[in-house]
Design a protein that fits this description.
With 522 residues, the chain is an alpha+beta fold. Among the domains are: 60 residues; 135 residues, Heat Shock Protein 90, CATH 3.30.565.10; 157 residues, no CATH class. 65% of the residues lie in helices and 7% in strands. It contains 17 helices and seven strands. The longest helix is centred in the N-terminal third of the chain and has 73 residues. The chain is elongated.
Length: 522
C-alpha cells in the first residue's frame, strides 16, 4: 500500500492560523454584530449567512491542519488568508478615520458594525479562496512542467537509444550471417540490454501522476546507500564513496529505482573528480537530506539544470538521460533535488515514511475526499441529534448562548458547526491509528463513533460546555450530564461512524481488486 510520508502525517501549523483567524473574526466581530443589531428582525436570515461563512473558514483551517496536503500548499492558503484579512482591516480603518459628518444614530451605528464585520470576514474568506486556487495552480504548473519534460525525454530516448540500438543490431546481424564473430555477439547483447533499460525508463516515465503512486513503498535508506556505494567502490583500490549513513530505522518513500538514482550521481562524481566522494545524511522531522559532496565541481551548468529544473532546450550529450529521469523519479517520491557550491554538492531530499511500529512521526493525514465524506456524515448526524435534543431536551438555543446569541437559528448553525469539527477530529484519529484499514466492518466503525459520542457527552458537553456557559453568564451545573444529551450524542456518533464507514475502500490498498486492476490504472 502507498506509504504515507512524514510530511503528510504531520499537523500543518499554518492551518491552525487559518482556524484562529476564522474564529476571531467570527466570534469577536460577526457574532457581536448580530448581538448588537438585535437578531430578531426581517433581515436576520440575511445576517446569518456571514456566520455560516465564518464557521466555514474555521472548518477549512482545521481540515488543512490534518490533511494530506503538503506544508507549502497549506502555507500558501494561510498567507493569502492573512493578506486578505489584514488588507480588509486596513481598508476599514482608513474608512472609519474619515472626518465624521455628524453624530451617529442607532441605525447607522448598527449598520457600521455589520458592514465592518462582514467586510473583514469577506477579506478572510476571499483570501482563503484565492489561496486555495493559488496553491492548486502552483501544483498544476509543476505537474504540467514535469509532463512536458517527460514527453521530450521520451522522444529523445526512443530516437537515440532504441533506434541506435536497432541500427547496431541490424549491422552486426548482417556480419553474423556472413561469419561468426564474438564481437558482434557482444555488440548485439549490449544493444538489447540498452533497449531493455530504455523500456524500463519509459515505464517509469509513463507512470500516472494522479497523487496515488501505489507502486511506492518504504525503503531503508542506509541499506540502499551502502549497496550503491559498494557498487561504486568496485574495482577501486580504496573507497570511492564514504557514507555517513542514517540509522537503520530510517525509511523513505521510494521504490526499487532509488538505488540507480544514487548510483548515477555517485558514478558521475567519482568519474569526474577521481577523488573520494563524501555522502552525509541530515535527518529532519519529515524529510531526510542526502548530501553528495566532492572538493571539485562534477556537474556543468546543463547538468545542474537537468537535475534541478528542466531539460536543456537542446539535446546535450553530457546530460544523458539518467539525470532528468532521476529528477522525475525523486519528484514522484515527493522529494526534490538541489545543487550548490558551483556543482560540487548535490542534495537529494526524500520524504520520510511513518514507522509502522510507532506513530512518532506525527498525526495522520486525512485526504480531501475523506474530509468531504466525514463532513457530510457529520451534517446528517448533527441534524438527527439536533432533532432529538429539540424534541426531548432544552433545545439548541443554549448552544448559541456559548457565542453570546441565545437564538434557535444561531444554535442550529453552531451545533452543525461543532458536529463537523468533531467529525473531522474523528476522521483524523481513525487515520492516525490506521483503524479504518484494520477494521472494515461498518457496524464496528459505527460502534466506535457511538463510543466517541459518549466521550464527547462526558467531556465536551458535560464539562467544557458547562464551564463555557458559566463564563458567559449562563448558570449551569457542573458536570451537566443528562439522559437526553447521552442519547443524542450516541445517536450522533453512530450515524457519524456508520456514514463515514460507507466510503469506498482506498484505491491502491491490498486486496483482490488491486490485483485485477490493469497497470495503467494503478
Amino acid at each position: 500500500m502507498f506509504p504515507p510520508a512524514g510530511s503528510e502525517r504531520k499537523l500543518k501549523p499554518s492551518g491552525l492560523l487559518v482556524t484562529a483567524i476564522g474564529f476571531l473574526v467570527t466570534r469577536v466581530m460577526v457574532l457581536e454584530a448580530l448581538v448588537f443589531g438585535g437578531l430578531p428582525s426581517e433581515i436576520a436570515v440575511v445576517r446569518l449567512l456571514p456566520l455560516v461563512v465564518g464557521f466555514g473558514v474555521i472548518v477549512l483551517g482545521m481540515s488543512l491542519t490534518v490533511s494530506t496536503f503538503d506544508r507549502e500548499y497549506v502555507d500558501t492558503v494561510a498567507r493569502w488568508t492573512v493578506l486578505g484579512t489584514v488588507g480588509m482591516v486596513v481598508v476599514v480603518v482608513v474608512s472609519l478615520l474619515e472626518p465624521a459628518t455628524g453624530g451617529k444614530d442607532f441605525v447607522s451605528r448598527v449598520a457600521t458594525d455589520v458592514v465592518v464585520a462582514n467586510a473583514v470576514l469577506g477579506g478572510a474568506a476571499g483570501g482563503a479562496v484565492i489561496g486555495l486556487r493559488s496553491a492548486a495552480n502552483r501544483r498544476q504548473r509543476r505537474l504540467l512542467s514535469r509532463q512536458a519534460d517527460r514527453g521530450v525525454l521520451l522522444t529523445r530516448l526512443l530516437r537515440h537509444e532504441v533506434l541506435n540500438s536497432i541500427t547496431a543490431i541490424d549491422g552486426h546481424a548482417t556480419l553474423l550471417s556472413e561469419a561468426p564473430d564474438e564481437r558482434s555477439h557482444r555488440a548485439i547483447r549490449d544493444a538489447v540490454d540498452r533497449i531493455e533499460r530504455t523500456v524500463d525508463d519509459v515505464g517509469v516515465l509513463l507512470r500516472p501522476e494522479d497523487g496515488r503512486h501505489q507502486w511506492l513503498t518504504s525503503v531503508e535508506l542506509a541499506a540502499a546507500l551502502r549497496r550503491t556505494a559498494e557498487a561504486a567502490d568496485d574495482g577501486n583500490d580504496g573507497p570511492a564513496v564514504e557514507i555517513d549513513p542514517p540509522g537503520e530505522e530510517v525509511t523513505v518513500r521510494a521504490d526499487e529505482h532509488l538505488e540507480p538514482v544514487f548510483a548515477n550521481l555517485f558514478g558521475r562524481a567519482v568519474d569526474r573528480t577521481r577523488a573520494t566522494v563524501c555522502v552525509e545524511t541530515v535527518l529532519g522531522d519529515t524529510e531526510v537530506d542526502v548530501e553528495i559532496h566532492s572538493e571539485q565541481s562534477w556537474l556543468n551548468d546543463d547538468e545542474r539544470t537537468a537535475l534541478t529544473e528542466s531539460l536543456p532546450e537542446f539535446d546535450t550529450p553530457s546530460v544523458g538521460y539518467e539525470l532528468p529521469v532521476g529528477r522525475l523519479l525523486v519528484a514522484q517520491y515527493g522529494g526534490r533535488i538541489e545543487t550548490s557550491n558551483g556543482g560540487r554538492t548535490v542534495v537529494v531530499t526524500l520524504p520520510l515514511t511513518a514507522p509502522e511500529r510507532t506513530d512518532e512521526s506525527g498525526q495522520s493525514g486525512v485526504t480531501p475526499a475523506d474530509i468531504r465524506r466525514i463532513s457530510i456524515a457529520a451534517l446528517v448526524a448533527g441534524t438527527a441529534m439536533g432533532a432529538v435534543v429539540s424534541q426531548f431536551g432544552t433545545g439548541l438555543p443554549i448552544i448559541g448562548a456559548l457565542y453570546g446569541v441565545d437564538s434557535a437559528a444561531v444554535g442550529w448553525i453552531t451545533h452543525l458547526f461543532h458536529s463537523v469539527v468533531f467529525g473531522v477530529v474523528f476522521a483524523a484519529v481513525l487515520d492516525h491509528h490506521d483503524i479504518y484499514e484494520r477494521v472494515v466492518s461498518t457496524v464496528t466503525i459505527a460502534a466506535l463513533g457511538a463510543g466517541y459520542g459518549v466521550f464527547l457527552w462526558l467531556v465536551a458537553a458535560g464539562i467544557v460546555m458547562s464551564l463555557w456557559l458559566n463564563v458567559v453568564g449562563v448558570p449551569t451545573p457542573l458536570p451537566n450530564l443528562t439522559v437526553t444529551g447521552l442519547l443524542g450524542h450516541v445517536l450522533w456518533g453512530a450515524i457519524l461512524g456508520g456514514g463515514y464507514a460507507l466510503r469506498p475502500p482506498k484505491v491502491g490498498g491490498q486486496g483482490e481488486q488491486d490485483e485485477k486492476r490493469p497497470y495503467w490504472e494503478v
